[in-house]
Automatic annotation (TrEMBL):
Annotated InterPro entries: 2Fe-2S_ferredoxin-like_sf (IPR036010), 2Fe-2S_ferredoxin-type (IPR001041), Beta-grasp_dom_sf (IPR012675)
A Pfam family this chain is assigned to: Fer2
Protein name (record): 2Fe-2S iron-sulfur cluster-binding protein
Molecular function in Gene Ontology: 2 iron, 2 sulfur cluster binding; metal ion binding
Amino acid sequence: MTEYTVEFVGTGETVSVSDKQTILSRCIEEGIAQEYSCRVGMCLACSAEIVEGEVEQPVAVARGLTEEEAERYALTCMARPASDLKLDRGKYPPSIEGDAESETETAAADD
Ligand code: FES
């Protein structure tokens, strides 16, 4: 088992995550406010842009990300670190950005 350091740019928060754990599970344990919902790779709420480093997330493409997006964005509920990482949370792959915006607009319209 190898431990990696995951840093969130913007807040500077860091968390140690093994290659056997998901980034989100460690954030929850450490009280880091990483957004999430489904925890099974379906809603994409937990997405973060990979500023530096690599992750293992073999399901990302099956969940709708393109191959290129799967290299640039981590679904933190499914992703395990493969190196030390710098992540920018709250950043979504372009192919789903439109969907997320329309859901937000729908939610706002319901208010
Ligand atoms: S929490 Fe839904 S995809 Fe990660």
